[in-house]
Amino acid sequence: MRQAGLRELRNRVRRDVGEYRYAIAGLLLYYVVTRLVFRAFCPLVIVTGLPCPGCGLSRAVWFFLTGQFARSFSLHPLGAFWLALLLYAAVRRYAAGKRISKGLCAAFVILCIATLGLYGYRMAFVFPDRPPMSYTGRNIMERCIPDYRQKVLGFFRLYR
């Protein structure tokens, strides 16, 4: 019975990887190109130099998994929630073989809204003074618009 369960889990993963192979390949290609050319991954950072709503999220999850909870929370307070929700979705999909429910979709939507709300707060009160909510120079807009950096940073300091 246990061997059959592992085989089914492997088949589910293999089926999903096969179905999304072009998206996975495209994401890997995007990652390699943007890292080589821009030394960044996030399109918002590459184009504007501004942090995105998910800035610090992957590092926060890593620090949470390694037991560095305070560091995780300081990088992105919702990292543990994203980790828990994604793990639950993965277990539900692959171990239990169930589809994503409406309740799980609602939880994802709520967490996305919370992430956007947190982003607004961090842009208003934390940017650009504390990583990961800091300005990244040498972005595309900075190369195209004279005094772009001063204008952006001036705008955010003006409303404090």
Largest sheet: none
Radius of gyration: 19 Å
**Total of DSSP H or I helical runs spanning 4+ residues:** 9
Class derived from helix and strand content: mainly alpha
Q: Give the integer mean of the pLDDT values.
A: 93
Could you state the order of secondary-structure elements as H and E? HHHHHHHHH
**How many β-strands, per DSSP?**
0
Overall, the morphology is globular
What is the helical fraction, as a range of percent? over 70%
Strand portion, in percent?
Answer: under 5%
How would you briefly describe this protein structure?
By secondary structure, the protein is mainly alpha-helical.
Task: Supply database-style keywords.
160 residues; 9 helices
Question: Overview of this structure, please?
Answer:
This protein is mainly alpha-helical and 160 residues long. Helices cover 72% and strands 0% of the residues. The relative contact order is 0.11. The model has no long low-confidence stretch (mean pLDDT 93).
List the helices and strands and how they pair.
Layout: H1 2-19, H2 21-38, H3 43-48, H4 57-65, H5 69-75, H6 79-95, H7 102-125, H8 140-144, H9 148-158
Helix pairs in contact: 4-5, 4-6, 6-7
